[in-house]
Amino acid sequence: MNRETTNRLRFVIEDIIPPILRDSALFRWAAQLAWGNHITHLATFRERAPFLSPDEYAELYRNHPRVHEGTDNSAACIERISESVLGTSVCDIGCGTGALLSHIRLVRPDVTQLTGVDFVIDDASKLDGIEYVAAKVESLPFGDGEFDTVICTHVIEHILDYRQAIAELRRISRRRVIIVVPREREYKYTFNPHFNFFPYTHSFLRAVHPVPEIYACEDIGRDIFYREDRPVDI
């Protein structure tokens, strides 16, 4: 299933079904027919979020069924990200399979350094010309301003300490930071292991406070695309 299909399904589930039904045992029962007991596990996961051990966190992600083939990004977001890259060095935080970096390498021959980071890099395709590093977004093993453009898509919604994660993205970026998160509302029963929910673009702007002078924040097909330029003295 691609991102465009899941976004259409999310429109029905999140915007059409009323909240009183969306959080009900009836919805949980219906969701279990399609998703099994994982729907209940996810609800418990969010309830216990502040108390989870690193091992519990990692175990849920290892067992979570993969929804999208290759990438969580829509084609429109991939194109917007690719055309927004500045400079010759790019780091993709939460790179997954490396699909986004592979696309950037194909359409942006001016980019000569491509680095992918994930806390587990076993799924990465390990293509030539792309370096992969295992690390957590809250503590990245790079120097200040090491990359011209730092990208982070469909990660911030998973991070409990998301402000620390955003601070790290800014720290290692020399010129530009690009972030994509789903535009969604929080309900008790969901199909994803998200901690943070951003129903509007201005909801996400609060998360990245302070917002720099040069930025863009827009809705692209139920995903929020955010781009900021770093101060010139970094």
Entry summary:
The chain is of the alpha/beta class and 234 residues long. 37% of the residues lie in helices and 20% in strands.
The figure for the number of domains is 1
Kindly identify the CATH topology: Rossmann fold
- Major sheet details: 7 strands, mixed
Order of helices and strands: HHHHHHEHEEEHEHEE
Low-confidence stretches: none
* Overall mean pLDDT: 90
| Strand adjacency order, main sheet | 3-2-1-4-5-7-6
Structural class: alpha/beta
Count every beta strand, where a strand is a DSSP E run of 2 or more residues. Answer: 7
> β content, as a range?
15-25%
Please identify, by name, the CATH architecture.
3-Layer(aba) Sandwich
Number of helices: 9
| CATH level-four homologous superfamily name | Vaccinia Virus protein VP39
